[in-house]
Specification:
Oligomer: single chain
Low-confidence stretches: none
Radius of gyration: 25 Å
Bound molecules: alpha-D-glucopyranose
Number of strands: 39
Strand content: 25-35%
Shape: globular
Helix content: 25-40%
Largest sheet: 9 strands, parallel
Distance between the termini: 45 Å
C-alpha cells in the first residue's frame, strides 16, 4: 500500500510515461502544487516561482555554470556536443531535480522523459519558470534544510550504484590505443615510474570495425589471455560499448536485432538507420524490456573473457546523420552545383551540413516499442542512455548475482543512478573545465549520481603539464579518476611529462585516500547523502559560505580547495570555521596547521595535496600501493582535528560482493 508522506507532494499531468526514476510508492496529492503558480502556454504546463534576492536554486546535475543556478536558462535534452561552455543549455544528461533555498525551502522534481526547460532568473529577473511539457509527474519535496530535502528526494529515487572497489583506483585512457602493444606500453611505463594504476580503458579501436561485442583479432590475437596477463599485473581492462550497432549483413548482433525486432523503427516499421562510428547503424530499442534483455546478454562474450568493467558511450543517442537526412542534404547541395550562389544560399549549404548531427527531426522520426505501446523517440529521448546502462546492469545481475560490475555511461537520466555511474563527456583541456568539474560534483550527487568523474587533463585540445597536475590534484578526491583524451591531441599519460615526482605524489596520495573515499562513498549511498557538499549547505547562515563555489566538502571530514588558475602558486581559501590544514607530499611527509575561521592565502605546490580537516573529525589514510587490492588497510594512519579523542565510522568490505550494508561500518576511536 502506498504510504502517505507529508513532505512529498505528487501530481500527474496528461499521460506520463513510466520512467522508473522514482522507486518509492507515493500517492497522488489533491489540489494544486504548493509554492508554484501554474499556467499553460503552447508547450504545455508552466510553473512559476517568484525568487527573492536572497533565494538560491541548486541542482540540475550535469549542467553548465555554478552551483547556484540562477541567471540562465537550462534545458533537459541529452546532447552529444563537445563544445562545452557556459552558454550551452544542455550537456549529455538530463537531471530534473532542483532545490530552492530561501525563506521557503523545497525541491522540485519533474518526472519527464522529454524536454524540460528551466528559465531561472533569465527572461524575467526574479522569476523561475519551468516548462514541463504535457505528460509528466511533478513532485514537490519539503524539508527543514537543503540537505533534508535532498535526502528525502534521494530516498524516493532509490539507492545509488556502488561499483567494485577497484573502480576507486586510477584509470588511464586515450582514444587511440590500437592494440596489445599500445596497452602493454602504458602498463610498462606506469610500472617503470612506480605510478599506481588499476585500469586501462579500451576505446573503440579494440573492436572490429567499431562493431559492439567484437574484438579485433589482429590487434588482440588472444584477448582472454591478454585480459589475464593484465590482471596478473594488477590491471583491469575496461572496454567501451557504444549504443549503435553496425548495420551489416553477416554481423550476428545486427542480424539478431533485425530478426527479433529489437531496433528502433521508422514509421514503416523498418530499423531506423543512423550514422555513428561504424557508418550505417541501427539503434537498439532500450526502452523495450525484450530488447534490453537481448542486448544485455551480449556482454557475456566480454565477461567470459574476464572483463569486470565497461563504459557505455554515444547513448544520447548520438547520431552524426540519419540515412534519409544525409541523402536529402547531398541532393540539396548537388542541386546548387555550378550556380552562382548568393551568400544566403551558400550559408544554407553549410547550415544543412551542420544540422545533420543530432537533428530534432531525426529524433522525431523513429519509434520505441514500450510496455505501453509505440512511442515516438522525441517524447522519451532522455531515457535512452539510462536504459542502455540498465540493460547491461540487469544482465550483470544474472551473470553473477553476487558480484558488482563496473559500468559508467556518458548519457544519463535520474533513475540510471541505481544502475551505473557517469563521466561528464567530452570536456577540453581548459582551466574553466577543471572548475566546472568541481562545481558539478554536488549537483550530480543531489540527483543520485555518486560514481562520477570528468576526463582529467581534458578530452579535447592539448593539455599542459600544469593543467594536468592541478586537475589530477582534484581528481585524487573524485571517485572516477580517469585520465582520458582524444586521438590527435597531445598525449597526456603522466609518464610523458617532466615533473614525474609531482605526478607520483598525487597518484600515491589518491591511493592513500582510497579507504576514506570508499568509506565516504558507500556511506553516502547507504544513507542517501551527498559525498560532495557545498559550503552553503553546511553553513546556511553564512553568506560567504554560500557564495563560495570553488571549495567543497568531500565526505564528512574534509574540505578541499583546488587550484584552477594557471600560473598561480596557491589560492585564497575561505574557512567557515577553524580547521586543520594538512599539506601532504606523502603519508610520511606532511605538515599540519590549525587555521582560524576566515580568509587565508594558501600556497599549493604542484606535487602536494592540501586539504582541511573539520573540527572533531578524523580521516584514515593508507600507505600507497600499486593498486587498490595491494593497499594495506589493516594498518591505517589517522589524521584528526580534535583535542582529545574522536571517532570515525569506517565502511569497508571485500570490494566485490553485492552485500553492501550498514553492518560493514566499524567505529574507530582515534
Ligand atoms: C566519444 C566519447 C569519448 C571517446 C570517443 C571515441 O567522443 O565521449 O570519450 O573517446 O567517443 O569512442
Amino acid at each position: 500500500m502506498a504510504q502517505k508522506r507529508e513532505n512529498i507532494h505528487k501530481y500527474l499531468f496528461g499521460h506520463p510515461f513510466r520512467t522508473d526514476s522514482v522507486v518509492a510508492d507515493i500517492p497522488v496529492s489533491a489540489g494544486e502544487a504548493p509554492y508554484l503558480l501554474r499556467s499553460q502556454d503552447e508547450t504545455g504546463e508552466v510553473f512559476r516561482y517568484a525568487l527573492s534576492e536572497e533565494d538560491r536554486a541548486y541542482g540540475l546535475g550535469e549542467q553548465v555554470r555554478g552551483i547556484d543556478k540562477r541567471g540562465w536558462v537550462y534545458a533537459s535534452w541529452n546532447m552529444d556536443d563537445p563544445e562545452i561552455h557556459e552558454n550551452r543549455q544542455s550537456l549529455y544528461a538530463s537531471h530534473n531535480f532542483l532545490v530552492v533555498d530561501g525563506k521557503e525551502k523545497f525541491g522540485v522534481f519533474v518526472d519527464s522523459p522529454g524536454k524540460v526547460v528551466y528559465d531561472i532568473d533569465y527572461t524575467t529577473r526574479g522569476e523561475m519558470a519551468i516548462f514541463c511539457g504535457r505528460d509528466f509527474g511533478l513532485y514537490i519535496i519539503e524539508g527543514e534544510s537543503v540537505l533534508d530535502v535532498i535526502r528525502t528526494f534521494r530516498k524516493m529515487i532509490g539507492r545509488s550504484y556502488i561499483p567494485p572497489k577497484f573502480a576507486f583506483g586510477f584509470a588511464q585512457s586515450r582514444w587511440g590505443y590500437m592494440n596489445e602493444t599500445d596497452v602493454r606500453e602504458v602498463a610498462d611505463e606506469y610500472g617503470k615510474c612506480g605510478f599506481p594504476v588499476d585500469m586501462i580503458v579500451l576505446d573503440i579501436d579494440y573492436m572490429e570495425n567499431y562493431k559492439d561485442f567484437t574484438i579485433n583479432g589482429e590487434r588482440f590475437p588472444d584477448f582472454p589471455a591478454f585480459v589475464r596477463e593484465m590482471k596478473a599485473r594488477g590491471i583491469r581492462l575496461i572496454p567501451i560499448i557504444d549504443a549503435a550497432v553496425k548495420a551489416e549483413d553477416g554481423y550476428s548482433v545486427y542480424e539478431e536485432g533485425c530478426k527479433g525486432g529489437y531496433f528502433c523503427k521508422d514509421k514503416d516499421g523498418k530499423p531506423f538507420i543512423v550514422g555513428v562510428w561504424p557508418g550505417d547503424s541501427a539503434l537498439p530499442d532500450f526502452l523495450s524490456p525484450e530488447a534490453r534483455a537481448w542486448f544485455g546478454e551480449k556482454y557475456r562474450v566480454l565477461l567470459d573473457c574476464g572483463i569486470e568493467g565497461f563504459w557505455n558511450d554515444m547513448n544520447e543517442p548520438s547520431l552524426f546523420y540519419s540515412k534519409d537526412s544525409l541523402a536529402r542534404t547531398i541532393r540539396g547541395i548537388a542541386e546548387k552545383e555550378g550556380k552562382n550562389l548568393s551568400l544566403t544560399e551558400f550559408w544554407s549549404i553549410t547550415g544543412s551540413v551542420a544540422r545533420l548531427a543530432n537533428n530534432a527531426d531525426d529524433y522525431a522520426s523513429f519509434y520505441h516499442e514500450t510496455e505501453g505501446g509505440k512511442v515516438s523517440h522525441k517524447e522519451v529521448h532522455n531515457l535512452y542512455g539510462y536504459n542502455m546502462v540498465r540493460a547491461a546492469s540487469e544482465y550483470f545481475g544474472k551473470y553473477d548475482k553476487d558480484k558488482r560490475t563496473l559500468i559508467y555511461s556518458r548519457s544519463s537520466h535520474i533513475g540510471m543512478h541505481r544502475y551505473g555511474g557517469i563521466w561528464t563527456g567530452d570536456n577540453a583541456s581548459r582551466w574553466d573545465h577543471l572548475l566546472l568539474n568541481l562545481k558539478m560534483l554536488p549537483s550530480l550527487n543531489m540527483c543520485g549520481f555518486l560514481y562520477v568523474g570528468a576526463d582529467i587533463g581534458g578530452f579535447g585540445q592539448d593539455t599542459t603539464e600544469d593543467l594536468l597536475l592541478r586537475w589530477t590534484a582534484l581528481g585524487a578526491f573524485v571517485p572516477l579518476m580517469r585520465n582520458h583524451c582524444t586521438f590527435g591531441s597531445r598525449r597526456q599519460e603522466y609518464y610523458r611529462f617532466g615533473n614525474r615526482q609531482a605526478f607520483k605524489n598525487l597518484l600515491d596520495m589518491r591511493y592513500s585516500l582510497v579507504p576514506y573515499l570508499y568509506s565516504e562513498f558507500v556511506k553516502s549511498a547507504l544513507r542517501d547523502e551527498l559525498m560532495y557538499t557545498p559550503l552553503g549547505f553546511l553553513y546556511p547562515d553564512d553568506e560567504r559560505a554560500k557564495e563560495t563555489e570553488d571549495q567543497m566538502f568531500v565526505g564528512g571530514s574534509i574540505m578541499i580547495a583546488p587550484v584552477y588558475r594557471q600560473n598561480t602558486r596557491g589560492r585564497n581559501v575561505y574557512l567557515p570555521e577553524d580547521m586543520k590544514m594538512v599539506r601532504m607530499r606523502s603519508v610520511s611527509d606532511y605538515t599540519e596547521e590549525i587555521l582560524p575561521k576566515g580568509d587565508h592565502y594558501v600556497e599549493m605546490g604542484f606535487g602536494e595535496v592540501v586539504f582541511f580537516v573539520a573540527k572533531g573529525k578524523a580521516i584514515p589514510l593508507a600507505k600507497p600501493a600499486k593498486n587498490v587490492a595491494a593497499l594495506d588497510e589493516e594498518h591505517l594512519l589517522w589524521i584528526k582535528y580534535a583535542d582529545g579523542k574522536t571517532t570515525y565510522e569506517l565502511y569497508d568490505d571485500d570490494g566485490f560482493t553485492t552485500d553492501v550494508r550498514e553492518e560493514n561500518i566499524r567505529t574507530f576511536t582515534v
